[in-house]
Amino acid sequence: MFDWLANPNRFNRITEKIQPCILVITIITLISGLYFGLFDSPKDYQQGDAVRIMYVHVPSAWLASFLYFSLAISCVFYLVWKHPLADLVSSTIAPIGMLFSVLTLVTGSLWGKPMWGTWWVWDARLTSMLVLFFFYLGYILLSNAFERKIDGSKTASVLAIVGLINLPIVKFSVDWWHTLHQPASIIKIGGPSIDDKMLLPLILMIFALSFFSLYMIILNVKTKLIEKKCEALLLKSNLEKYRKQVKI
Amino acid sequence: MNAKYRRLFITIIIILTLGLATKLILMALEDNIVYFYTPNDLIEKFGDTKNIQNKIRIGGLVLESSIKKEGEKTIFMITDRKKEVKVVFKGPLPDLFREGQGIVAEGMFQNNNFIASEVLAKHDENYMPPEVADALKKNNVWKGDSN
Lengths: 248, 147
Prior knowledge:
The structure holds two protein chains of two kinds.
Chain A: H1 2-5, H2 8-38, H3 54-81, H4 84-115, H5 124-143, H6 149-162, H7 166-176, H8 196-247
Chain B: H1 3-28, H2 30-33, H3 39-46, E1 56-62, E2 68-70, E3 73-79, E4 84-90, E5 102-110, E6 113-121, H4 130-138
Parallel strand pairs in B: 4-6
Antiparallel strand pairs in B: 1-3, 1-5, 2-3, 3-4, 5-6
């Protein structure tokens, strides 16, 4: 089954068709999400307009976690089934995930100053999110740190899988320990504790960022496949040149 | 067993082992991870406030009608609805500071008074427009301000 999915030609053919759809969905959800988030949603009873930071902060945090999960799964495929496309996907996911983890930390900090009265505290949620960022960073640095590409890919994949343990800590830190960060509002027992008018832009933004990531991943994998093809062609032509020289 | 499944098996075993190790480490470090104690936690853990020499953080709600201003000083009680702690703080309070608000104060004990060096607001996980909050309060089904 994985061989079927991982065939580069088939991958190109399928994505050729769905790529425009993904782009359209991204643009529609992003524009409507931003419109509802910034203009057509109520102020919070406690936080006022500052609550609007949530519409960037929460989707970024979800994406940072979800992309890390995808990264680790892709690394498992690479280590177990040794498929080169899995490594291409991992190396594509990592920078996008890292971007969202940075965005989470920065917007969280901007939100923390007016609401909590501090840019940063070392509580369990904030610290585990920072650790997630370092796992992304570690993956990227490690995968480029070896002379042979394949050594880097393998070592970095092991690191990414180890980092999987951090994900439940990020998610449940607010339930397991007293933290300054508030507990979950959307996925919780008894339904979301957030007004429907605020939930709408939040969900739209989550879709927007998810489809944006998907689009970027497909685009990036395609580019890397073309790069590989070029390398192979170059190698082939060099080989032919060499053969001709030897004959003469 | 072929090589693929052996690798998959090893990967799963490694994840489970590391997960268990992490859980044990986190359990052992619980005191360092908890960001604050509630007043009731403090009494259960230390018995008396005289036994607390170090800098700590206390979290809870600002007790209703306990806020007093004495010059630059603000004096108020933190409660978890079981026990209370008297807090003295000199400095700027966060915007969200008010009666019934969840807060975290950092500081040290001096003769049963908690001298705070920093006060942070902790907002809860409920998000709603002001009209909805007012309506809930009016109908006595208010559940907020409890965190």
